[in-house]
Amino acid sequence: MPAALAYLLSQYPAINHPFMLREVRRLRELGWRIETASIRPPDRPLDKLTPVEQEEARGTFYVKTSGIANAVRAQLATLFTQPSGYLRGLACALGAGRAGILYFAEAVMVGQWMKRRGLTHVHTHYASTAAWIATRIFPITMSVTFHGQAEFANPASFRLPEKIRASLFCRAISQYGRSQMLKVTDPRDWPKIEVAYLGVDPREFAPRPFRADPDPFVIACVGQLAPVKGQHMLVAAVDVLVREGRHVRVRIAGDGPGRAALEQDIARRKLGSHVVLEGFLNQDRLQELYAQSDALALPSFAEGIPVVLMEAMAMQIPCVATWITGIPELITHATDGLLVPPGDAQALAGAIARLMDDAGLRRALGGNARQRILEKFDVQRNTEYLSDVFLRRLSY
Alpha-carbon distance 146 to 172, whole Å? Predict the structure, then answer.
């Protein structure tokens, strides 16, 4: 029977990570008692969250906003009740770089919160150092979902081998991700690595109306505005299409450190009427964007398996993405989407032009894309599999 789990997340709820909220709530539907803790408060004020996000926020323990007095009490309680664990965790933190002491303080607070709530296992998404240190201090176990990008690009600085070794099990969200974890891990730890895909609810992301002859042709792009997401390649591709006389409009949803440079690129190319930066959109508004789009483009240089592709595919939106990392596990080229080399604006423009010119292709790719989601990336089925992994691993 399912038991209790702590979920420690860096920021919850967060508009960039809707899959975490879906996973937590689906596991609860399967009978798990999931208690959530978040290092940082939500990324928006409470009144800007959706009703479901508000409900989650009210039940979440927030580490950074719990106050100095609570932090001091947690330190003293841990030092006096578990002195050897306290010193062991402190030594671990001092070896974790300049931010180690901050992670140590967070780990102590998380461990004390778990103690109060009667929790003995913590699951985290991404390479949480606080969870890792907490397992050195308290009699708790941990598991991790690794997504990739930064962790796989610099496994040493993220202490990937040590965190995998310290975990009860680790989850990769793609076979590609598993391969990157195997690459940096002692073969004795390989049995700890599980592949459990993310997913979306195909009922929530239902097919949108198909436009046979759109004018303009609307392309959605969803993701943080950051160099790794490759949005400048999409702007360059739009430049090619506009010079060919095509009536195209790109709507980019998201925000981030790359916004200013992207605005400058759009202005320099005089594409202000063709490329619109929408900013952050919550799930309701994002679905409106999908419903008004004829295609989705994701020109990333690195990814795990992007949930935004799953959302668009479930809505029968033909997708153009880069042929990298785990994306080919989701999209089979020319069957349920189009794949192009990363960093090739001409190829990206060519793939978009192909969709613009062939309504039959768009319809076929969209239909096949939804079928792909139904068969392999349905959140209900995939969360049931993750639940089975927890049950199997926690019973070892």
Answer: 6
